[in-house]
Structures are given as C-alpha cells and as structure tokens.
C-alpha cells in the first residue's frame, strides 16, 4: 500500500505540474502530512542522485526525474514486483513451480510466498484461471487465451495511465522478451501498411495491439501458441493477417500460427475506423454496409434518447454511423475480452464532466440493449465521439464580441481589424471600430474593447494593443477573453446554485466507514424527507455510481441518478475532512444532485461550472477548511466564485 501511495503522489504531481502543499497531498491520499514527506523521500531515492519531487516554500512539485521515477521497476523485494515475478513464473512453467525453490530464488520465506500465492488467487478472479496447489508445487490451470489475458492485465498494471510503455511491458514479459529496437520499426511499418489500405489508425488502440503482438511473440517463442481456428472469410481479415505475419517474422523473428494471426488481426480490425471524411450519402452508405443492422438501430435509438435527455445536438447521421461502427468493434473486442485502454479517461472525466455523463447514459443504453460491458476506458472513447460531435456543432454566438478603438490614420484601422480577425477570429468577433481619438467609452458595450490609445477608465474588458498587432497583444487578448468567459460562467453559477442548495441537507464530517452507498443514502435522506425525491431515486443514484464513479475531480464526487425525476433540482452537500475513499481515488466534497425534468438547464451548470470550481486545489482546501456550517459553506463557495 505504501508503494502504491508513493506512485499515486507522484502521479498527482506529474499530472498537475504545479506546487502542492503537504496538507493538500495528504488529503488526496488519505494520509498525514508526515507520511507525505516520507513518500517524497522514498520517491527521490528511486532516482538518486536525481530529483523526482522538488521541495520548496510552496510545498512539492514534480521534478525533472519524475517520469523516470514513475517508470522505475523498484526493488525486487517489493510486494507488487514479487507478485508479478511469481505470476510470470507460473505462466512460463506449464508443470508449475516448487514453492521452496521459488522462495529461495526471491529471497523470502516460504510463509511469505504462501501469502503471495494467496494474492495470486485474488488476481485470478474472473480470468477463467485457477491456481492449483499440490504439496510443494503450485500450478496455473486454464487456457492459453486466459493466460494471455492475465499477462495483458499485468502489463496494464505496470503502465502509467494506460499509455503504451515498452519498458513496463518488458518488466511483465521478462527482460529476455522483444526489445525497443525491434518494436519501434514494427509499429511504424504496421501503421503505414494499414494506412496504405485506406484505414485511419487509433493510436491509443494500436498501442494495445502492439502489446498483444508482443505477448503473442513471447508466448510463441516459448512454444505456447493459440489453438488454430477456422480462418475468417472476410478479405480484410486475410489482408491484415498477412501483414502481421510478414512483420512479425521480419522484425521479431517469430512465425505466428493461424490461431495467433486470427486473434491479432481481429484486434487490429476492431481498432481501425473507415475514413468517411466526406459527409456524403455515398460515404454514409459505405459505412452502413459494414454495420450489423441491429447495432445501427440500437445506437440510433440510444443517441436520440440521450439528445432528448440532455438537450445536446448529437443526432447527426455521420456521428451515429461512426459511433455505431465503434460500438460494433467494441462488441467484437468484448468477445475477445481485449479491452482498449484510454489514457485520457481521467482528464476527460475531470475536464468535460457533462460530456462524460452523456457518454455514461449512452453506454448504459448499449449495455442494456446489446449486453456490452461497461468499463470507464470504453466509456471515455464514447465521450470522445460525443465531444467531437459537440465541438463541430458549437454555435457562433459563443464568440465574444469586441470593439476596436484605433484613431483614423490612412487605412491603419482597417489593417488592424484584418490582423485581429486573422489571429483571433476563433475567439472573438469584431462588431465595431471606433476611429475617433476621443470615443464615448461608456457607450461601448461589447464584451471586449481592444484599444491602441489609453482608455479614460481602465477596466477588466479593456485591452491595450499596438496599432500593428504583436504576439504579446494576441496573448493579452486571449487571456482577457478567457477571464471574461470564466467570469460569466461563474456569475451564472452563483445565481443558479444558491437556489439549488438545501440547508437541511448539509453534512460535515462524512464517515469513511459508510462507503459510497452509505454516503449517498445519508445525503439523500433529507431530500426524501423534503419531498424532493423518493427512495427509488436514491437507489437509482447508487446504481448510477456502479456504472462509473462520479468522482469527477480529485476532490469532488457528484452522485446522481440517470433520469431527471426530482420535483425540483436540489443539491445535498457532504464535507469530508480528512478525505474519504470514492471510486479509485479519494474526495473531500460529495454533492448529491437531484435533477428535475423541468429544469434541464441546471444539468450543464452543475456538471461543468460546479465541477470547474472544485477542480482548483486551493479553492477546495479553502471551502473544506472553513465550511463549518451551511451558511459558512455558502459564503466560502460564493467568495471562491467571485474570486
């Protein structure tokens, strides 16, 4: 557990890239500040004399050697490394291992190895594998496919945030496995060959494919091939199989059999998407020809339900067909139990919670209709589809308006406007140009004022620029536009949130022993008592939590039900100091939200602006420390929003 917390601490610092106090990190990890200091010392020892974590007056931040510390395999005696070594030994020896010989080789006692074998049994849950023990011998029982899935799971555990990491893969397979010199050219040529066939390759997915190819090459070299199966009749399956066979023999020195080639070509084909760049009827029909009618029908109906439920503009033919193709591939991956990891899952959930929630709704509908398993990484891929569609359909009225103040001198003001449109046209829209040297500043009511002369009264929305636009001018205008957008969002948030909070539904000092379900019931009780929701809403909130954790940031969880059945939109707040476990992390604020059918607009407010406030570590600490009562909580929240 200590090693895992060290890795978690380092991961937080690397991801945020900012200074963090010991107290803040302690809250995130559920330990004391003293423990944080000891973790920092241990992490730095991994890369000595380098620096993985820097210390200073502001606390700690990731140092230049942080990435190396994350990749460090650690000492051979650490429990995780010993567990992986033990599993590798069991996988490599069909006849099993001798417990006493293995304990000597690992420099641990037989009792410690027995405890490790018990952990191996826990790791085998749901893998179709079993650990048999007879006297001093221990042996894995199960198919070769199941054993490879276990190797894949170990490799993912070694990799940081799901990204492909050859060094981590070699730690899983053993140092004698295929190295970077072979796999670099292999991957490059595989992507190029697939591209020559007219396919776009999902780089996140191809990383997983390369990992499975590495596992296949390693197992085949140990005379452990997959059983042969009847070849697929599809021509593209044969094409991809031929490419993999050729590249594996040339780059890796391994001849793959029919069973391995069929398995690997299926994985490749479920991670490539037909280009379909032109949104024409011909392109749509080409995509539709590849789809199973049932999949297209279900995806279309689920997307229409999501659009109506969340009031989002996603019912577009190209979106539906591309998503349906992705879902069909997901269905095939589910049959192979070859899940695709997504390194963007955590950031998507924290940065675009509303989009992720739409994806959860869609994923749940697909699960119910097509029996597709729900995994956060797969939900994140659906969120990427949803976000891409919404990005394409953003309205122009989201642009900020601007007035240019530039006293007339020949065509100077025209040149300046042209430069602003060219450099900032995606962020602002120039709706007026003042050429007087003494304009009526009070009458200018646009979001921003870009002026080449000193204004009569400085203001947040007024930006001084040069007559000939410079890079520094562009940066200042972009920064000002960002401040204006944030100010507007938070002003709307303050106005709306104050009406949603229920004073009687405020709890400070959440008990970690309650668990997620207990906290949801605790916060839901006053809302039920007030007639805002019924007991069924609380149960559906628990069901939604089981689909995917609602911990959208490192500090905030927003449990809620799918379906807006509350009598009015309301929020119950729970404060945890210190933090409590939630999902795969820990949180300090739990906001149980009950949404009303008549107030759908509140959904986006809560899931974007509210989550944005609690994504800032300093703001969270201020609210948590000072929110001794509901009035104090509201005061601190408003103060944070107002800046």
From TrEMBL:
InterPro entries: BglG_antiterminators, PRD, PRD_sf, PTrfase/Anion_transptr, PTS_EIIA_type-2_dom, WH-like_DNA-bd_sf. Residues 290-396 form the PRD domain. The keyword Transport applies. GO terms for biological process: regulation of DNA-templated transcription. Residues 500-643 form the PTS EIIA type-2 domain. Keywords: Repeat, Sugar transport, Transport. SUPFAM superfamilies: Phoshotransferase/anion transport protein, PTS-regulatory domain, PRD. It holds the Pfam family PRD. PANTHER family: CRYPTIC BETA-GLUCOSIDE BGL OPERON ANTITERMINATOR, TRANSCRIPTIONAL REGULATOR MANR. This is PTS sugar transporter subunit IIA. It comes from Microbacterium allomyrinae.
């Amino acid at each position: 557990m200590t090693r895992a917390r060290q890795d978690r601490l380092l991961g937080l610092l690397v991801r945020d890239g900012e200074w963090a106090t010991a107290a803040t990190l302690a809250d995130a990890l559920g330990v004391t500040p003293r423990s944080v200091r000891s973790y920092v010392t241990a992490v730095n020892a991994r890369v000595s004399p380098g620096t993985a974590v820097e210390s200073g007056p502001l606390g700690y931040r990731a140092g230049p050697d942080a990435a190396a510390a994350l990749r460090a395999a650690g000492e051979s005696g650490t429990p995780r490394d010993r567990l992986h070594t033990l599993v590798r030994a069991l996988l490599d020896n069909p006849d099993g291992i001798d417990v006493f010989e293995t304990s000597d080789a690992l420099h641990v006692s037989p009792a410690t190895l027995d405890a490790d074998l018990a952990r191996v049994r826990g790791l085998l849950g749901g893998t179709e594998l079993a650990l048999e023990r007879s006297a001093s011998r221990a042996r894995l029982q199960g198919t070769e496919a199941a054993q490879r899935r276990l190797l894949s799971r170990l490799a993912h555990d070694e990799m940081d945030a799901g990204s492909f990491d050859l060094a981590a893969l070699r730690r899983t397979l053993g140092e004698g496995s295929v190295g970077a010199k072979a796999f670099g050219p292999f991957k490059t040529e595989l992507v190029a060959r697939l591209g020559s066939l007219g396919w776009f390759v999902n780089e996140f997915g191809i990383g997983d494919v390369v990992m499975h190819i590495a596992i296949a090459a390693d197992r085949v070299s140990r005379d452990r091939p997959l059983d042969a199966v009847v070849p697929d009749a599809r021509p593209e399956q044969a094409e991809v199989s031929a490419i993999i066979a050729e590249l594996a023999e040339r780059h890796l020195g391994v001849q793959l059999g029919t069973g391995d080639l069929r398995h690997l070509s299926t994985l490749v084909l479920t991670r490539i998407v037909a280009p379909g760049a032109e949104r024409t009827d011909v392109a749509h029909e080409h995509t539709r020809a590849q789809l199973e009618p049932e999949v297209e029908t279900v995806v279309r109906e689920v997307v229409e339900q999501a659009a109506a439920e969340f009031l989002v503009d996603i019912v577009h033919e190209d979106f539906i067909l591309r998503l349906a193709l992705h879902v069909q591939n997901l269905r095939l991956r589910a049959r192979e139990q070859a899940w695709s990891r997504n390194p963007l899952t955590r950031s998507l959930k924290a940065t675009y919670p509303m989009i992720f929630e739409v994806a959860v709704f869609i994923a749940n509908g697909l699960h119910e209709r097509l029996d597709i398993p729900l995994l956060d990484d797969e939900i994140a891929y659906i969120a990427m589809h949803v976000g891409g569609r919404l990005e394409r359909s953003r309205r122009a009225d989201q642009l900020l308006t601007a007035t240019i103040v530039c006293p007339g001198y020949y065509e100077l003001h025209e040149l300046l406007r042209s430069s602003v449109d060219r450099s900032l046209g995606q962020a602002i829209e120039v709706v007026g140009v003042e050429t007087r040297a003494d304009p009526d500043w009070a009458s200018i009511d646009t979001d921003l004022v870009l002026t080449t002369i000193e204004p009569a009264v400085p203001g947040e929305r007024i930006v001084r620029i040069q007559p000939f636009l410079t890079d520094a001018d562009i940066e200042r205008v972009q920064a000002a536009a960002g401040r204006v957008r944030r100010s507007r969002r938070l002003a709307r948030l303050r106005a709306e949130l104050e009406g949603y909070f229920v004073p009687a539904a405020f709890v400070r000092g959440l008990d970690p022993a309650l668990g997620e379900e207990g906290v949801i019931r605790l916060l839901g009780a006053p809302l039920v008592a007030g007639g805002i929701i019924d007991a069924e809403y609380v149960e559906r909130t628990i069901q939604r939590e089981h689909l995917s954790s609602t911990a959208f940031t490192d500090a905030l969880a927003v449990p809620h039900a799918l379906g807006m059945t509350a009598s009015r939109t309301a929020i119950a707040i729970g404060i945890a100091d210190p933090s409590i476990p939630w999902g795969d992390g820990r949180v300090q604020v739990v906001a149980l939200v009950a949404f009303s059918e008549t107030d759908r607009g509140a959904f986006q407010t809560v899931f974007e602006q509210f989550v944005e406030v609690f994504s800032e570590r300093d703001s969270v600490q201020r609210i948590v420390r000072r929110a001794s009562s509901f009035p104090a909580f509201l005061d601190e929240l408003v103060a944070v929003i107002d800046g």
